[in-house]
Design a protein that fits this description.
The strands form eight sheets. A six-stranded mixed sheet has the order 7-4-6-5-9-8, with no helix packed on it. It has a six-stranded mixed sheet with strand order 16-13-17-21-20-18, with helices on both faces. 18% of the residues lie in helices and 31% in strands. The protein has seven helices and 28 strands. Bound molecules: adenosine monophosphate and magnesium ion.
Length: 407
């Protein structure tokens, strides 16, 4: 039996990044860049008007006001998407729209609200001063050609999608999504569409595991339910090892006569690196590797399965995908009520927590009015951590709290 910190360290030490692929821009959301991305153009690509108004020479309007407007000849109109044809000289202005290139000769754009068109658009009265150089975004002021705009390792959010589009990166270099194969074990386990017969239970773990793996960034392959039979188990774990990066099993890892997962793993050449963690929930959690492939044997108890996957497998999925932020954020919390445990194992307790003053959260154990089953656990947004040797945590005492925001 090992400590939780050691278990996490062993899993991380035995996690390798998956290979690089190129995906179309529209499929890149949530991916992690495997290479730096550079701009292929200057941005803005030209001096650009940032207001609708008139491009002119600032020197012409230094004394303009409502009472003494500067009156200029309008020499052309420049809608966005066109190129100016004329040079603006003293006493002249070009009507210009937001996004259009500023014409040669002009050094300032005055917004249309500070002007009045006269002579059927042939002249413009400027009614206010505006500082020389205003309302122009300069060529290359955001980004220069060949400048790195996104670094390798960046997680692609909607904003990054926009940046990739702006620099013309229509095929995006990312790490491929890790593939997680999910297996539910147990002769008592039936698929959700069946009403359980006496002695049977529905397979909830298989489905929550698939969902959690997707949230962690993986692609999933559901490999079905396997009864407690050594040959069947070996066949399915073997299939998972061939087609997936991670095989995640539910159940069959306790000390019972029908708990055959560890044996099956070893039979297939998987090196079992630990099979018990001094943690609660989820003591009989098994982890092994075969080359770069990983096998997680999660306990059948639904709460144990959910917590074990979250704390151990999720960081592995994220590391495989090249992410740097592997673990959930940990903050400090106080409990709203006393909490007791029988000492011996570090406990991760599902809790409903709210942010409070000075960065300290307040947590309420969701299992307080019943066992910590999946149903009461659905209220949890966090896990508070009680050290193994502690017997009582008093209300108001500070603890570490793992936040599970997108749970
Ligand atoms: P095991 O780890 O196989 O001994 O299972 C521990 C407990 O979890 C037993 O009560 C099982 O019936 C239950 N269990 C096992 N697999 C699942 C599953 N896929 N979905 C829901 N509960 C399960
Ligand atoms: Mg079982």
């Amino acid at each position: 039996m090992i400590e939780m910190d050691d278990a996490i360290r062993i899993v991380m030490e035995n996690t390798q990044r998956v290979d690089k692929v190129s995906v179309p821009l529209n499929d890149a959301l949530g991916g992690v860049l495997s290479e730096d991305v550079k701009s292929d153009i200057d941005m803005p690509p030209f001096d650009k008007a940032t207001m609708d108004g008139y491009a002119l020479q600032g020197a012409d309007i230094t004394n303009a006001s409502k009472e003494t407007p500067a009156i200029l000849d309008v020499i052309e109109e420049i809608p966005a998407g066109t190129v100016p044809q004329k040079t603006v000289r003293g006493g002249q202005a070009s009507r210009i729209m937001t996004g259009a290139p500023v014409p040669d000769g002009a050094d300032t754009v005055i917004m249309v609200e500070d002007t009045e068109s006269t002579d059927g658009g042939q002249k413009v009265c400027v009614l206010d001063v505006t500082e020389k150089g205003m309302n122009i975004a300069r060529h290359g002021e955001d980004v220069r050609v060949d400048q790195v705009v996104l670094e390798a390792g960046t997680v692609i959010r909607p904003l990054e999608i926009g940046i990739l589009a702006a620099v013309g990166q229509v095929n995006v270099p990312v790490y491929r999504q890790p593939i997680v194969g999910v297996v539910a074990t147990g002769s008592e386990v039936v698929e959700p569409q069946h009403k359980p017969e006496p002695g049977q239970i529905r397979n909830s773990n298989g489905y929550s595991m698939v969902a959690q793996a997707i949230r962690a960034g993986a692609q999933t392959r559901y490999l079905g339910i396997v009864e407690d039979d050594a040959a069947a188990l070996i066949r399915t774990i073997g299939e998972g090892l061939e087609t997936c990066d991670i095989v995640a099993l539910s159940g069959g890892v306790s000390a019972g006569d029908y708990d055959l997962v560890q044996d099956g793993m070893r039979e297939l050449g998987v090196e079992v690196l630990f099979d018990r963690i001094r943690m609660k929930p989820g003591k009989p959690l098994t982890f092994g590797v075969k080359g770069a492939k990983q096998v997680f044997g999660l306990p059948g108890n639904p709460v144990s399965s959910v917590v074990g996957l979250e704390l151990l497998m999720r960081p592995a999925i994220r590391k495989m995908q090249g992410r740097a932020d592997l673990h959930r954020p940990v903050v400090r919390t106080v409990l709203s009520e006393d909490f007791r445990q029988s000492p011996g194992r570090k406990q991760f307790v599902p809790a409903h927590s709210v942010a409070g003053d000075h960065g300290i959260w307040t947590s309420e154990w969701v299992g307080h009015h019943g066992s910590a089953d999946l149903f009461s656990m659905a209220r949890a947004n966090s896990l508070f951590i009680v050290d193994a040797e502690v017997e009582v945590v008093r209300a108001g005492e500070e603890l570490d709290l793992v936040l599970l925001e997108d749970w």
